[in-house]
Design goal:
By secondary structure, this protein is α/β, with parallel strands linked by helices. The chain contains seven helices and seven strands. Strands 3-2-1-4-5-7-6 form a seven-stranded mixed β-sheet, sandwiched between helices. The termini are far apart. The model has no long low-confidence stretch (mean pLDDT 97). The structure holds S-adenosylmethionine (SAM). The site of S-adenosylmethionine (SAM) has 18 residues, from α4.
């Protein structure tokens, strides 16, 4: 299914970040939270690599994106071809990412945790990728079509593994390129 979605995926304002205002909003949301350049970031379920390339291009971060859709990864590699430092992409299952444990400063995932067969087990694996002091960055939602994870449930899932859970609702339409009437949020966890 995701291979079929890939071709038009970036047409949604928050997917392709083609509108500079929407792109700036995501940059201003994520870059200050992630901090100084050179952070090692795993972008799990990276899709067409929009956030991976944003973080590499504007934050000078070292990003490894993982997605199980070969077509998404093909487009991500195309998008990142001229980015320095160039993100690396792998076709793999994000529920068991084949990445070295305890080796990332940031594990980031947008709109993927909800689709994991067991979100709590996936989260445990994702957290194991973090080096000491590493940060988990989740962007999730409970969308009007019924899919997704409620913010309170997601915070509870993270809280089962981590002491720090910071929830921020992303109600501002600037992130989505228009009004929304569902629940969209960011969770940061630093410890
Ligand atoms: C809604 S898209 C989000 C893409 C990207 N994170 C973004 O925000 O632009 C969900 C992505 O997760 C990927 N995905 C879903 N389940 C996956 C899994 N088990 N392993 C790897 N990727 C997965 C899909 O292929 C798709 O690219």
């Amino acid at each position: 299914m995701w291979d079929r979605e890939a071709e038009t995926f970036d047409e949604a304002p928050d997917h392709g970040l083609r509108d500079p205002v929407v792109r700036r909003a995501w940059a201003d949301l994520l870059l200050p939270a992630i901090g100084s350049p050179g952070r090692r970031i795993a972008d799990l379920g990276c899709g067409t690599g929009t956030l991976s390339t944003l973080l590499a291009a504007e934050g000078q971060h070292l990003v490894h994106g993982v997605d199980f859709s070969p077509e998404m990864i093909r487009l991500a590699r195309e998008k990142a071809a001229n980015i320095t430092p160039r993100p690396v992409f792998s076709v793999a299952d994000a529920s068991e990412p084949p990445l070295p444990l305890a080796s990332f400063d940031v594990v980031l995932s947008r709109h993927v945790l909800w689709a994991m067969p067991d979100p709590s087990v996936a989260l445990q694996r994702w957290i194991e990728l973090l080096a000491p002091g590493g940060m988990l960055v989740l962007i999730e939602g409970k969308w009007s079509n019924g899919a997704g994870l409620e913010a309170a449930r997601c915070a509870q899932l993270v809280g089962a593994h981590r002491a720090d859970v910071q929830l921020q609702m992303l109600d501002d339409e600037v992130y989505w390129g228009g009004r929304t009437n569902d629940e969209r949020y960011l969770i940061l966890s630093t410890s």
